[in-house]
Amino acid sequence: MILVTGATGSIGRHLVRRLAAENVEFTALVRTAAAGRSLGCPYVVGDFDDPDSLAAAFGPRGRVSRLLLNSAGAVPVPDGTPQPMVRRQLAAIDAARAAGVERVVKVSAFGAAPGGRLAVGAHGEIERYLKRSELSWSMLRPNGFMQNFATGDGGYVRDGALVGHFGAGRVAYVDARDIAACAAVLLTGDRGAGEVFVPTGPEALTHREIARRLGLGFRDIPAAEAAAELRVRGLPDGFVADLVWLWEDMAAGGLSVLTEDVRALTGRTPRTFDDWLADGRP
């Protein structure tokens, strides 16, 4: 039995479909029954912030053998406040250990490291805790998802243009379906214990090239201007400073790394941005 957290997200919804199609026994952890019904698969209602519901989701010791650990990313918080994602995923790791889970497959972030900024640091803390838990583990460290350009998380559109501090840096965006396919391999087989995988797309594109593919204009703005807009919206100074660091790193090509990890795990080439668009941006 596999327990899938984050089942309604960009990765999770594709993973549960894949597991169902392959007749793999699994349960999706969802916050509401309505969310579970929308998935059309076996589900249990629970919440990372409710230890009793987590224990109930795992059931009797040994019932769940593997866990897909995934939840919403780092969010703006007051300076110095711990990220809720860290607290919640650490609780899930504790519950998994108590339930006798054999392996945890964690969806992390590219470059995850304790003390890093934004999601990089939050995921780094969680990875460190998981490695010290005595549970078997595998890490998936994707960078940006192609799906972010459908949800709005990959940038923002203003007056028909993709606007942000992007520079000419290239990003190896990956289709969330390919991350889900990698997760399925790690959850259902013997491969990947104690290994870190970095799923990327097969190409690294600039945001100007992405805007062209999306049929949008493109306007690159200075980091200071973008940061000022975020401060006007009331975001904490520390969070804005971390975003500026991320933008500068991206503009310098820090997210342009290409890997063969999708092919190594799934046996096929990852989808291109054009493939994702042709498929209707699922």
From TrEMBL:
Domain spans labelled NAD(P)-binding: 6-184
Protein name as annotated: NAD(P)-dependent oxidoreductase
Record InterPro entries: Ergot_Alk_Oxidoreductase, NAD(P)-bd_dom, NAD(P)-bd_dom_sf
PANTHER family (alphabetical): PRESTALK A DIFFERENTIATION PROTEIN A, PTHR43162
Domain of life where this protein originates: Bacteria
Pfam families, sorted: NAD_binding_10 (PF13460)
